[in-house]
Amino acid sequence: RKIIKKSLFTERQIEIILNQKDLLESKFSITKGAYYRQVGQSREKLIALFYSIILLRGLGILLPDDIDVISKLSEQISVINDSDVFPEREDDVINVIDRVIRQACNM
């Protein structure tokens, strides 16, 4: 949850994306119209994210090593998500991710 707060997405949008990808089965206590509006918003954010990654990579701002680091950090998130990790361990991983991201974004 901590990493979601630092992302471009809300918790609800992450739930919706996971639900749409059949990675999470969740019941939503919102109207059908509101749900599909949020599906559209989530899709647009996801599209914008991919375009941003492609743009930053194409301009040489995001380097191949950065992509490798992102992949490794993503694997850590998968490990946390797929297991019962102690909250302290999760905090440690989030702190490492935060430090690496801030270092990579140093201008």
Quick structural summary:
This protein is mainly alpha-helical and 107 residues long. It has helices at 2-5, 11-20, 32-58, 64-82, 87-104. It folds into two domains: 1-61, no CATH class; 63-107.
Describe the secondary structure blueprint for this structure:
Blueprint: H1 2-5, H2 11-20, H3 32-58, H4 64-82, H5 87-104
How is this structure best described in words?
- The chain is mainly α and 107 residues long.
- It has two domains: 1-61, no CATH class; 63-107.
- Helix content is 73%, strand content 0%.
- It has five helices and no strands.
- Helix 2 packs across helix 3 and helix 4 runs antiparallel to helix 5 (87-104).
- It starts with a helix and ends with a helix.
- The relative contact order is 0.09.
